[in-house]
Specification:
This protein has eight helices and five strands; from the N terminus they run αβββααβαβαααα. With 213 residues, it is of the alpha/beta class.
């Protein structure tokens, strides 16, 4: 039952929460430094929950620009040998393996990226996909679910920490701005909003009138 519920819930899309940490704002010039992904699961009652999370530290691509202000903001030292950084291709390949596995489990036709300010994260992921020359990509190339907009609608907040607080989700500012922590918190927030809409009676839709027309 749960597989079919998730397939129907988002029009055949399987939601995967993504967060990236970068060395600037230009996906074609500034390095992708961290990426994390949290898959989602649906229980037998149709409620959405965060599933497994995987995270990678990324080696800056050759010729990339590292903006000092961005590194100061996220606290990442790309030259630290203890980071255990991998290439963009290795990180994306492993993430895509997990996404395809869960997407297939729920019989969804495609994955959709969920992120806070999703246009930013998607631009960096798509640029990395192009650089790595990855042909089989589970994500839709331009459709995304933006938790910034969803939180503005449902909670009256657009900043991640404030949206989490409004939803009663614990948030530690000291751990923020790491891809792992922000992804997990964004996943909690996304699931909260989806489930809240269900509890308020917004889902499943009442299609009685349209079915009789």
């Amino acid at each position: 039952m749960s597989q079919h519920n998730l397939k129907q819930r988002f029009r055949g899309y399987y939601p995967v929460v993504i967060d990236v940490e970068t060395a600037g704002f230009d996906p074609n010039q500034n390095a992708l430094l961290e990426i994390a992904a949290t898959v989602t699961e649906m229980d037998e009652d149709g409620f959405l929950h965060p599933g497994e999370t995987i995270q990678f530290n990324i080696e800056p691509f050759e010729g990339s620009t590292l903006e000092p202000a961005a590194l100061e903001f996220n606290g990442i030292d790309p030259t630290n040998p203890l980071r255990g950084a991998v290439s963009e291709k290795e990180a994306l390949t492993e993430i895509f393996k997990l996404v395809r596995k869960r997407q297939k489990h729920y019989d969804c036709q495609r994955a959709v990226m969920v992120a806070h300010n999703s246009a930013f994260d998607m631009s960096f992921v798509n640029a990395a996909i192009k650089r790595a020359n990855i042909k089989r990509v589970p994500f839709h190339p331009f459709v995304s679910f933006d938790t910034t907009s969803l939180a503005g609608l449902t909670l009256g907040q657009t900043v991640l920490v404030k949206a989490c607080q409004a939803a009663g989700i614990e948030f530690d500012n000291k751990q923020a701005h790491s891809a792992l922590y922000d992804t997990e918190k964004t996943a909690e927030l996304f699931c909260y909003m989806v489930n809240q809409w269900k509890q308020l009676g917004g889902w499943p839709l009442n299609n009685t009138d349209s079915e009789t027309e």
